[in-house]
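Posted in: Structural Biology > Protein-Ligand Complexes

Title: Requesting predicted complex, alpha-D-galactopyranose in pocket

I'd be grateful if someone could produce the 3D structure tokens for the following input. Sequence and ligand are given below.
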Amino acid sequence: MITSVMNRRAACLGMLGGLTALAVPFRSSARAAYDGANRVFRLDGEGVTYAFGVDSAGQIQSLHWGGALQADDRVPAAPKPADYSGFDRANSVTPLEYVGFGGGLAIEPSLKISYPNGVRDLVLKYASHTIGADGIVVRMKDVSAEVYVELRYAMDRATGILARSAVVENKTRDWIRVDQMAAATLNLPFAEDYELHYLTGRWAAEWTLQKRPLEVGETVLESRMGMTGSQNNPWLAIGREGQTDEEDGPVWFGALAWSGSWRITVDKDIVGHPRVTAGYNPFDFGYRLKPGETLETPIFYAGYSDKGMGGASRLMHRFQRTVILPGAPEPKLRPVLYNSWEATEFAVDEAGQIALAEKAATLGVERFVMDDGWFGKRNNDRAGLGDWVVNPEKFPKGLGPLISKVRGLGMEFGLWVEPEMVNADSDLYRAHPDWVINFKGRPRSEGRNQMVLNLARKDVRDYILKALDLLLRENDIAFLKWDHNRSWSEPGWPEVAAEDQQKIYVDYTKNLYWIFAELRRRYPKLEIESCAGGGGRVDLGIMHLTDQIWPTDNTDPFDRLRMQDGFSHAYMPGVMMAWVTASPNWVNKRSTSLEYRFLSSMQGCLGVGDNLNHWTPEDFATAQHMIEAYKSVRQTVQRGDLYRLVSPQGDSERSVTQSVSADRRQAVLFTFLHSSSTVDATPIIQLRGLDPALRYSFREIAGKADADTPATASGAYWMQHGIRVPLKGDFQAGAVIFEVAQ
Ligand code: GLA
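-- Reply #1 --
Done. Output follows.
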């Protein structure tokens, strides 16, 4: 019999005292059900069914994660677990939902704990569950110790994206130490031909898409550095070789909502079961729980699409827009911004910024952002971080006159901050040298001449909040670009007991989230950008508290095409800031036209970051045209469905993307060419996602379609026949808007 019992939130609150700090509520949850006869739990969202069950040994096994089953399909009960051999024990070859380290486990554990007496054995069995309108909570208990684990499941109905997290509770009479803890283990259906897609990078070269077959063994994606990191991003997608491509075939995907050290392990055990385990990074981890204390994991979000990599990313984009972002389900559109960094670097002052603001306003810019250099003794990157007071030489009357001017020009004002950092040459460090993350008596490594403040400390957390609060209270600031320009080193916390110092990996990030949440609570109109020297802190955890992302410091418009493509696999273009900056660009000394630079940036959230004092009247005219055109398609680019029609990856000479508005009445096509050659003929581009029966007319933003292209045609025509926008030369680009003909 299928039953539905009580409200999950009430159940959670009752059981564990409301540990909902990391939870993101869904607007509408998928149907959750329990088949008591088979002891099978089931979540059914749009296009997806997820099922798991309690077996005869009391273990919880995965039963189905994939396309939707019919409501009256009965999922068979979990089979009896069995050892494969004396070496390959049942718990290492059974697809378990949450794997305790104990009982001879050979595979990646979801949870490993130690007791004061040296015991490190955990065998979790089903204890009870609650099930309700917004999900399922399963409670497990160790076979003998009073250690409880709560597994939380909720599914967003519209996208079928599952949220999984876990809470461990120490009800013993002594402390226990959590050595390793994942939000979830997820098992994929047994198959031989999986391929893993993931993202790697480094500073100024983030978002490199990688692919490798899933072989027996482990692939580890991780950050050990206290922050999300750009070396790996906590996102992955798994397709099937020969079946999955951009628009077709099954894709299982997931992302961890955590901005501290993290790890996602993808493994295939010795009998071929593929699984994903995601959570806190066990490297250098240790979290002691006193009697009665709990530790909660971040959420791992997992989804499934049968529409290829494109379908998977469209689901992720929709999920971010409707669930994750502040303002979800209708987050505000990103304004066109101007940023001073590449124009003036640290040499900001009132007159210089006003001159830029006056010029930016004539372009149609909506938000003027002053970047680094405005505070303390910040004339270069060797001093000033930590001293969040306006530099009196650069701004003798404070920020007031600049902000009034910017507001008078019809723009909002935004400011760069890097609150988690301190330079040795700062009043803050001179007063509080103990506030940085460090090991007692050991060198303090600097990165970009700075150290990381220990936000896990309450006094540091409160100092940062107070400094920012003062700034926001005294000035009309609509936006903060929140930067973080180095990863951690010497991760010590000397003020707490040696056994508790590794709590820093959890407590730092929780306090960071707390500061963001508190600022947003006090200043509800404030918007924030997550930046970490580019894309070093991009994950669903920070996205829940910030409105936009700076994906990379690399502003070369050609390099960007590949990075934007990589970014779009995991995150939505509607948060991805992209500035138009100088040519030749500082990264590769590559020269490109202003039009090309605009079109590259218009694939995301448009900004301008060049020194406008160097622009000609023609540059201003081009920029005005492009910004006006961008505003006419902004809703579609930022909120619509993205189709990656031609990939820029590998040796591709081309790149084509198309965005379609939610109502399918507008689409915009961006097409780029690296270099033409004599044998090149520009291929015809078939659109996607239009309404075949509606008639669309087209107009070019840049480039020219073939002369014989019909002025209007049906969606079917554009999708089946297509359009040709010939491009010739190096670094050429075109863009075309399609709109339902009146
Ligand atoms: C980082 C950011 C840049 C800029 C500088 C300022 O590198 O990514 O955009 O803000 O810091 O120092």
